[in-house]
Amino acid sequence: MLNVHAGAIEAAIRGCVVVATYGLNAVQLSPSTGYVEGEITFVDGSRLIFFDFVRQMAAALDREKYRYHFMDARNQLVFRYDNAAHHPAVATFPHHKHMPVGVTDSPAPSFAQVLAEVETHVLGIPS
Q1: pLDDT digits over 70-89, tens only?
Q2: Rounded CA gap, 82 and 71, in Å?
Q3: Exposure pattern of 10-34 as b/e (b: 16+ CB <10 Å)?
Q4: CA angle in degrees (0–180, nearest 5) for 65-67-71
Q5: What is the pLDDT of residues 8-35, one digit of tens each?
Q6: The sheet that has 77-82: what strands, in order across it?
Q7: Has this prediction a pTM greater than 0.90?
Q8: CA 125 from chain center: how many Å?
């Protein structure tokens, strides 16, 4: 369960052309729960710190908690996706995206979607 999830994350990282270095840690807490956390440094000095807490349900893996915090080389927030229940006014509650100037609605992104957004930012491609 956790090995497959961690393997998919690592495959996405290895396939990203703007990754300079990364660390990844997967911890199995019980037969049905665990988490994957890590940090990626990109070629421009920006970083992504991430955390996924997952639970194996009947036939699927449920990502109960997540956090993807992307910051520039000066450690200033570029964006952070999470599902902490602290912004009940957003339409996608509890899922949301923090930006330098506020919080916006956002469905839960996959790790690959977040990494693609980071890659676009690092490459300077307008979104």
Answers
A1: 999 999 999 999 999 999 99
A2: 14
A3: eebbeebebbeebeeebeeeeeebb
A4: 180
A5: 999 999 999 999 999 999 999 999 999 9
A6: 19-28, 33-42, 47-56, 61-71, 77-82, 96-99, 102-105
A7: yes
A8: 20
Give the pair of three-digit tokens for residue 122: 């690092």
Check residue 1 and give its pLDDT: 74
* Per-residue tokens: 99: 């930006």
CA–CA distance, 114 with 21 (Å, rounded to integer)? 17
Q: Is 124 left (phi over 0), alpha (psi -120 to 50) or beta?
A: left
3-class DSSP state of 80: strand
- Cα 93 to the center of its chain, rounded Å: 17
